[in-house]
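Hey, can you fold this one?
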Amino acid sequence: MNRSLPLRALAHLSGRSPCDNLLKRYVTNWLSTMGTGIFTMEGAQDPDGKTITLEGQHAEPGGGYMKHRAIWTIVDNNTQTFDMYGAHQGGREWKMMEMTYTRKQQTLR
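Sure. Predicted structure:
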């Protein structure tokens, strides 16, 4: 391992968010090269068909669990947002991540 690289360059994340047709729920799993834990959330699509709300938790290195809530929203045909909230061991929930996905526009040649 090259220790001269910044820490963020050494971590790799992998996630999947399929729909479990049997349970009729979305299930997401995240794995990181920074640890051995697997982070899982489950949730359902809102009736509007544009929002999926997921909830889950993961073990913390110092003991206990951190709870998570994520909201994935389809804004339009080219834009999606993903907001994640967390709470340490029964504490107050706080927004920990906000992402906006924008479809890359194709250029005509």
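The two ends are 42 Å apart (CA to CA). Let me know if you want another pass with a different chain boundary.
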